[in-house]
Amino acid sequence: MYTQSFSVPDDTGQKIKAVAAIEPPELMAKFDARIDADGRIEPQDWMPDAYRKTLVRQISQHAHSEIVGMLPEGNWISRAPSLKRKAILIAKVQDEGGHGQYLYSAAETLGVSRADLLDALHSGKAKYSSIFNYPTLNWADVGTIGWLVDGAAIMNQVPLCRCSYGPYSRAMIRVCKEESFHQRQGYEALLVMMRGTDEQKAMVQDSVNRWWWKCLAMFGPPDADSPHSAQGMRWGIKRVSNDDLRQKFIDATVPQAKVLGITLPDPDLKWNEERGHYDYGQIDWDEFWTTVNGNGPCNKERLSTRVKAHNDGQWVRDAALAHARKQQQRAMKEAA
Ligand code: FAQ
């Protein structure tokens, strides 16, 4: 028998001890050959249990990030400075909700239920992106989230369009197109402010100072401290490593900051001719893990807002189910 040892969280996001997955060798060989040939795995195909669990973990964390990610910006819809900015922001926040829906649907194709995934989020067992546990303190934060947070999300998600799991890779194509609009609207909003008053310019600089380092941490721990990277890359789920994506993001963003006229808050940020990349300073990983483990500035507020929204929506789910039952009964009556 083919045996592999994995340490993966279970479907609810809880860590389980290393499990020995014993898989039928002929099925495993077929699966490996498809991965090696850069083929796609579809829901009806056989897959090793650890591959399925890894995908459930990543896709559900991603879905949770999208719906929790609606909150920091949603907070500014009623305070947008013009009708145009309000319309753009409403569209963007709705898009993030839609991304959550595509991703929960992709996770469901792996045999898990959306209700269980949401329970894991609401009980604090499941992770979501660290970045959404920081507050949005001024209007420029909305532009900065578009420029830097969506910018980082695109950098991470474009390679996921080539992920080996078909439903996830297809969902990512549409998500990336929408994220591209999000990034551009954020950058444009900041450009307008940077051509405005000194107060507006100071607001943008303050915002970028607060978000820059948090965005670099979004890509996840350094490769050497990333327990899932090697297997994720082997399976074609991850195509580019955390550190390489972080570097690509920095290299792409520094010239954009120059056009904007903003200073990125890192005295060590310098072009390194030899490496052909920007060098950068130390990320505060202790602060990152404190936030990921539930003790960031807004973790509790984000979760309680999410739980309240879910509970307030119970009547919609009940009504939809009652309607579906009625339709089914009518169809059965007509068929009888
Ligand atoms: N926050 O071994 P690795 C967005 C966890 S969407 C929290 O490197 P992996 C759109 C990781 O889960 C943003 N936890 O793990 C938007 C693991 O914990 P576990 C979300 C993090 O999976 C914009 C542990 O650390 N995007 O922004 C973070 O190979 C604006 C060890 O890490 C995605 O989810 C973090 N930043 O790589 C919405 C993309 N980083 O499960 C609204 C898909 C790591 O063992 C407004 N996901 N951890 O308990 C991925 O690409 C990967 O899962 C990574 C992590 C790269 C996030």
UniProtKB/TrEMBL annotation:
Coiled-coil region: none
- Annotated InterPro entries: Aromatic_CoA_ox/epox, Ferritin-like, Ferritin-like_SF, PaaA, PaaA_PaaC
Q: Name one GO biological process term.
A: phenylacetate catabolic process
Q: Give me the Gene Ontology terms describing cellular component.
A: cytosol
Q: What Pfam families does the record point to?
A: PaaA_PaaC
Annotated GO MF terms: phenylacetyl-CoA 1,2-epoxidase activity
At the top level, the lineage of the source is Bacteria
UniProt-recorded name of the protein:
Ring-1,2-phenylacetyl-CoA epoxidase subunit PaaA
